[in-house]
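Researcher: Structure for this, please.
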Amino acid sequence: MSTIKSSSENLTLNADGSGNDVIIQSNGSTKAIVTAEGSAGIGTSSPAFENGSGLEIRYAGGNGAHLKLTDNASGTGATQGLDLYMFNTQAYIENYENAPTIFRNNGAESVRILANGRVGIGTSSPTNKLHVKSTGAEQINLETTGGATTILAIALKNSANTWQIENGRASNVLSVRSSTGGETIRSHANGVTAFNAGIALGVGLNNTASNVLSDYEEGTFNISLVCSGGSAPSQSQQGYYVKIGKVCHIHGQTSLSGNSSGGSQMKINLPFSVTGARGAICIGLNQPLKMATNGEYMNVITEINSAAAFVVSHVFNGGHTHLDWSHAIGSGIFSVAGTFRVA
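Model: Predicted structure, token format:
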């Protein structure tokens, strides 16, 4: 038996018996229902949920099922208050007021969206489109389970092009790409960062060509001395080089055990071909090497004057244009160091 009972100021609608619903109808059509399970439906006689119970609002006449919340400050107009609605399969949360929309969790504010669209996480006064603030050590994680080669990227886009920071295309690297120039920067897992085109140093922010540091390279090469006259047995020893762009610096050692004739020129092999521009290679002795002709110790400098992979130079000593080598010369160890421009 169903009853409607009024007691003082309370109105009770009761559907007696197990499994009976409370139904509100108009002109023979159900407008609202409270089911025996505790769910409520407006515009539907059979509210349904994935689990538990709740309130379902349905507009069967077209698009737009709304749950509207207003108060004394917001007013009661169609475009006032907070509106949660479904329209053409799309879900909307709309605050019609010129005021923030605030999300709270565990008694505290978590996210705030200002009326101008700025979003604050951890701050109630965001100063940019997205403002994340923390009082402790935090990080923002972007994670994919698509495998090691799956691209995970942050796109930075304006009306002209798109820049993209990604972890994809090669294993264990972080890349910066542009929509027009492809990959420009790659940082490897071991900490090495590679630049595809170069680095412009001290030439202005808009410069893309002049004085560009196009590459950096370091390595080893074999140093040897060769004389143009007679024979000068030398033992090749390891040298080191650092090349930055077109400028190469070398240093290392080699040894010499004498020369069979005087009036010779020396040539020193280099790791790269030399341009026509002049550079300087300095040669010094780690131990005295005595000259048979005048008894002086050798103090030498050579200069690059050949656009070749070998530098052919006079050796200067006491005003002489070349060094007179002799059979009587004992062995000596040369230190070689200098800088030149690569062809």
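Researcher: Any notable elements?
Model: The chain has four domains: 2-95, 101-132, 153-196, 218-341. Residues 260-264, 287-330 have pLDDT under 50 and may be disordered.
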